Amino acid sequence: MKKRIIVALAGLAFTVGAAAAEKDDQAQIRKALAKVIPETPDAVQKTPVAGLYEVSYGTHLFYVSADGRFLLQGDMVDLQSRTNLTEGRRSGARLTALKNAEDSMIVYSPKGETKHTITVFTDIDCGYCRKLHNGMKEMNDLGIAVRYLAFPRAGVGSPSYDKAVSVWCSKDQRKSMDTAKANGKLTSAKCDNPVAEHMALGQALGVNGTPALVLEDGRMLPGYLPPDRLLQAIEGKI
Question: Which residue positions in the chain have pLDDT lower than 50?
Answer without folding.
Answer: 6-17
